[in-house]
Amino acid sequence: MNYWMYLLLFFSVIISGSSVLFINISNKKLKLILSFSGAYLFAISVLHLIPEIYLSGTPNIGIYILIGFFAQILLEFFSDGIEHGHIHIHKHNNIQNAFPYAMMIGLSIHSFLEGMPLANLATNAHSSLLTGIVMHNIPIAIALMTVLLQSHISKTKAIIWLVIFASITPLGTLTSYAIGENIVFNFASYFDKIMAGVVGIFLHISTTILFESSENHRFNLIKFIVILLGAGFAILSLF
Predict the structure, then answer these.
(1) Angle, to 10 degrees, between the axis of helix 101-115 and the axis of helix 155-181?
(2) Is the torsion defined by CA of 196, 200, 205, 211 positive or negative?
(3) Hey, CA dihedral for 43, 140, 85, 61, is it positive or negative?
(4) CB of 129 within 8 A of CB of 191?
(5) DSSP 3-state assignment of 139?
(6) Which candidate, 14, 138, 163, 193, has a CA 20 to 30 Å from the CA of 219?
(7) What is the pTM of this model?
(8) How far apart are CA 26 and CA 35, in angstroms?
(9) How many CB atoms lie within 10 A of CB 91?
(10) Separation CA 145–CA 38 (nearest Å)
(11) 80 alpha-carbon distance from chain centroid
C-alpha cells in the first residue's frame, strides 16, 4: 500500500481548497484551471486509459465505459455540475437550509468512484490516472470551497467539510483495495470494470468542460492555449 498516494490525494484537495481563503480566485481563473484539467483528463483517457482497458481482454468492457458516462449525468442532478466548475448557490429564507447537502452527496459518490481503480497498482496507467484525479480535484476543491463560503456557514465548518471531501477519494481507494484483497477469481476483471467506469466519468466531465470552454461559441485564444498545454502535458507522460 503506497501511503504517499493517499497523502497526495488528500492534501492536494486541502491545499487547493484552502487557497480560496487567502487568494481571490476569479471565475475566469477557475475556468482556465478547468480547461487545463479537462484537456488533460480527455487526453489521458484517449492515450492511456482506454487503450489499457481494451487490452485487458475483459468481455464487453465498453459497456462499463457507457455506464460510467451515464452515471455521471445522474450524479450531476445532485452535484449541480460542480465537477466541471458550475457554481450554484441555492438561497433559502432559513440560512441553515442554504448548505448544499445534495451537492455534497453527489460529489462524494463521484470522488469515491474515482478513487477505486487506484487500488490496482499493477496497471501501467496508474500514474496517469493518479495525476488526472489530482488535477481534476484541484478545481473541484476550489469551486466547492467557494460554494461553501457563499452558503452562509462559518469558515471553520467550511474547512471541516473540505476535509471530509478530501477524505472521500482515498476512502474509495482503500475500500477497493480491501475488496480486491478478498477476490480470489476475476481479480483483474474487477479493476478493469471499475477503471472503465471511471473512464466513462472522465469522458463526460472532460468533454463537458471542453465544450463549455468557448462561451457563446466564441474563440478564446488564452483558453485554447491552456487546453493545448493540458493535452500536451498528457502526451509528455507517454515518454
Answers:
(1) 30
(2) positive
(3) positive
(4) no
(5) helix
(6) 138
(7) 0.86
(8) 14
(9) 10
(10) 20
(11) 14
Place of cell 472532460: 206
Alpha carbon distance 98, 101 (integer Å): 9
> For residue 181, what are the contacts with CB-CB under 8 A and spacing of at least 6?
none
Distance CA(111)–CA(10), nearest Å, equals 12
Taking a C-beta distance cutoff of 8 angstroms, is the pair 141, 21 a contact? Answer: no
| Cell (9 digits) for 233 | 502535458
pLDDT of residue 214: 61
DSSP helix/strand/coil, 215: helix
What does the pLDDT profile of the chain (239 residues) look like in tens digits? 578 999 999 999 999 999 999 888 888 888 888 899 999 999 999 998 999 889 888 889 999 999 999 999 998 888 777 877 666 555 444 444 457 788 889 999 999 999 998 987 666 677 888 998 999 999 999 999 988 888 888 899 999 999 999 999 999 999 988 887 776 556 667 788 889 999 999 999 999 888 876 665 566 788 899 999 999 999 987 77
| DSSP H helices in the chain | 3-18, 27-44, 50-55, 61-79, 101-115, 126-149, 155-181, 187-212, 221-236
